Amino acid sequence: MSRTPRPLVAALGLALAGGLVLAPGGTAATATPTAPTAAPAAPAAPAAAAEAKPIAAPPKTATSTGYGGAVSSVDPYASRVGLTVLKNGGNATDAAVAMASALGVTEPYSAGIGGGGYFVHYDARTGTVQTLDGRETAPGRMPTDAFIDPETGEPYPFTPDLVTSGVSVGTPGTPATWETALRRWGTRSLSQALQPSIALARKGFVVDDTFRQQTEDNRERFSAFPATRRLFLPGGKAPAVGSTFRNPDLADTLTAIGRRGTRAAFYTGPLARLIARTVQDPPTSSSTTLPVPPGFLTVRDLRDYRLRAQAPTRSSYRGYTVFGMAPSSSGGSTVGEALNILEGSDLSATDEPDALHRYLEASALAFADRGAHVGDPAYVDVPLRDLLADRFAAERACQIGDTAMAKPTEPGDVDDYDGTCGATAATTEPAEDTENISTTNLTVTDRWGDVVEYTLTIEQTGGSGIVVPGKGFLLNNELTDFTTVFDPADPNRIQPGKRPRSSMSPTIVLKDGRPFLALGSPGGSTIITTVLQMLVNHLDLGMSLPEAIAAPRASQRNTATVTAEPAFIAAYGTILEDVYGHDLVPSGDGLTSASDIGAATAIRFGRKGRVVAVAEPVRRGGGAAYVVRPAR
Ligand code: GLU
Q1: Quick one: which atom of ligand 1 is closest to the CA of 461?
Q2: Which residues in 193-221 are b (16+ Cβ under 10 Å) and which e?
Q3: What pLDDT, in 10s, does the model give residues 277-309?
């Protein structure tokens, strides 16, 4: 099958090496900006569109097997958008951007142009994995004590003060990520890629339980902002299940971005000024009792936002090569280190509880090192090579015994290791983990064998709670991922212009140089353990990919207790507690879907172009995985 020729700018983009900084639009920061990709003007929305019927919800198919390309996401609308792009000859990047923007419409509390994320791309022609770091950045004027209440001298309480605030809003990276990804690897213009989500926002989608529940969960803080209340609580109520939700403001914003490019229509100009004003002086209702501390984001921060193109992390695990997201995310280094630690034991030969015990211990050790060493590499020295060194992992694995070690456990000594068992150095206490369980993830492959794994977020479910007035999208509260209280030894301390440490772990696994598996998940810092557990389930414990995704989860992030889904506790709690000495506590309230850990997505690559696309079957309402040509 012949490939669609790539546009010149995309071909040139491939020449950009790791570590380069990209301006919005994908041009190297030092280069003269290229003209926006010539794009057909987006058709104007018909006046009657608002009255048109909503787009009906596609089926929630959790597993699909077939050929010619595949998509998976937590949302059937987004997955169908991606599938349509693939069927119409688009490639994986075209589909991924179209899906991501559709998620910004149907999953606006988890993702959208007000947030950031990490885009991992496998190019079948060159056999290379490359990544885009579209993480939000701290404003250039953000003081290091920004999270200390000037009135009390004490840290702002995380909830509600920091969560619903201007001070936690970072400069969004998602618009730049979409534009740059398309220029580097896509065949469609940004305008073309945004058309399906513009239609979805204008015509509307059918509200499901998850959307309604997430709206209800945010009722108090959404009510604090007239613009948010008007959009998400029409008539003062969360939209009913089965009703139509339209977002014409977002349709207009996306149309402008598609027509004029992100630099003119988002990072500079009237929208940039409005975003900065909204952050610096959050437009609250007079009746709210929420404090809503103002933020520091300026038009200069938006104008100066730079995407980073950088090399992925790379580690080998039992003959597979695992590519992940390098810092500013801790995903790649922490998943990779834990796998290296686990590689020393043959998990397929041991019984399941013992394998799970080792998985929990390896995860705790890797999290200890993450806390001590990982932050934005533009600001702190991250010893990535050491963290991913087999000898370092071998030494860390010495800590794993027949029963659970005391936690929090200490980080290893990255300056002095030789792979043999000995003492490890104690340096820091792990900072409190304040990440939440929002975010969304998608996996795509096309008929040419390209793969995209993309995790994007606005941080909390509902982000900062602040809709940019009249623009139809929520601003992130990603800066809450920084450690609240400044400590000069903490790699994740607040610094102006810095990216807060993430846990997002979009992962592509190759075997013999060809794609074997692509996977990722939402879920704050549990993203790391979810990706790790799915890998162990599938590669070591003999589970099929659908089983590996559906299996109950447990997350050990170097804390005294293991957070586990109730089904995990029911299945393994007794033996892991009584025999191995772990202390398991139920995630969420232990009763409802709030206890879900990670609605993941994945694609497994088989022989002769056969793929198995898998979405979460139950968590967060279940997702949708489709293939272009189903296997018979
Ligand atoms: N802020 C999180 C991170 O970057 C993602 C948000 C979440 O999943 O809660 O790791």
Answers
A1: 9
A2: bbbbbbbbbbbbbbbbebbbbbbeebeeb
A3: 999 999 999 999 999 999 999 999 999 999 999
**Phi and psi for 549 in degrees, rounded to 5?**
-80, -40
Read off the amino acid at residue 134. Answer: G
Cα 146 to Cα 142: distance, rounded to the nearest angstrom: 6
Determine which of 15-24, 51-60, 277-286, 385-394 has the lowest per-residue pLDDT on average. 15-24
Give residue-wise pLDDT tens across range 332-383.
999 999 999 999 999 999 999 999 999 999 999 999 999 999 999 999 999 9
| Residue 522 CA, closest ligand 1 atom number | 8
506 lines ligand 1 (CB under 6 A): no
The finding on whether 476 has its CB within 6 A of some atom of ligand 1 is no
Could you please report the per-residue DSSP string of 512-581? TTEEEEEEE--STTHHHHHHHHHHIIIIIS---HHHHHHS--EE-SSSSSEEE-HHHHHHHHHHHHHTT-
- In terms of Cβ atoms closer than 10 Å to its own Cβ (0-12, 13-18, 19+), residue 265 is buried
Q: CB of 133 closer than 6 A to ligand 1?
A: no
Q: Is 441 in the pocket of ligand 1 (CB under 6 A)?
A: no
Which residue reads 């997350």 in tokens? 555
Q: Which residues are catalytic?
A: 439
The gap from C-alpha 207 to its chain's centroid, in whole angstroms, comes to 23
The 3-state DSSP class for residue 483 equals coil
**Closest atom of ligand 1 to CA, residue 478:** 1
Name the β-bridge partners of 206.
244
114 Cα: distance to centroid of ligand 1 (angstroms): 14
